## 1
Amino acid sequence: MSAPMAGPSKPPALNLPSITPLTAPTERPNEPMTHGMDFGPGAGSEALNLPQERPLSETLANMIQYDSTGDVQAIYDFAVSRGL
């Protein structure tokens, strides 16, 4: 004798915030449209709290250990020689 197979399971319900339509009224009426841009009124891009740019050589140095071909090492050596 065998047990009946279970039916398809339902995916878990996601509790996502609602999407604001593009045509919705602003939620920040006192903030300039250029807030977050490096021109015009309002704070510049520093307000976006993005990661700081790193030199190319630093990014490549972090990738060397994952490259079995040696190509990243060669590009890294070139970048360092050029001060990138």
Note: The chain has a mean pLDDT of 87.
## 2
Amino acid sequence: MRQKPHITHERLLELVEYDPATGLFTHRIARNNATKVGAVTGCEHRGAVYLKLDYRKYPAAKLAWFFMNKQWPTRNVLHRDKVRDNNAFTNLYESTAS
């Protein structure tokens, strides 16, 4: 099965806003009666936050990295404080090879 390509940076900016101080993502467009502009988005699963964008689920930490750096991370994005739902940009770093 062929994997769908990652979301583009332009599309990410169309769909959500990211606050690097809090690590929260909010909707930029209303999608239906349940989704309002400015509402916080993301679901927690096993301590980490995920966002579903264009029918694909993404880890919020990787989306935050992508949002700020305009490049998809080449390695895992980890949390300095080990709290997986704290996606403040200063708390994120790309893992090393080891």
Note: The two ends are 30 Å apart (CA to CA).
## 3
Amino acid sequence: MIQFDIPGPPRTLLRARHTRNGHTYDPAQNRDNKREIAAVAALAMRGKRKVDGPVAVSIVVYKRTEKKQIGPLMAKPDVDNIGKLYLDAMNGVVYADDCQVVNLHVEKWYDARSLTRVVVTEL
């Protein structure tokens, strides 16, 4: 099992951008977020080998709120875009390719802190 936390507000995969002449590119924020997630995942992987079989991934996002409201977060960002960002960022770091992910669970919660907890379990 590999587990790591990313402090700060929820991160999500932004849509690809297009130039006027039709070229598609990844926004800089996506690249920065993937780089940060990959660096934290690499620290969690120290002394461990990349997983070469199927994996289950659990991603739980905690978004800080000033209100007394603690519980499910039913607002942006969307869980599918959260999952895509983290799975892409872990490519080549935790596993060879995100096609190895056979089970994905993403949750969003309001909390007193802002962080994202990622747990990867080899099946």
Note: The chain has one domain: 2-122.
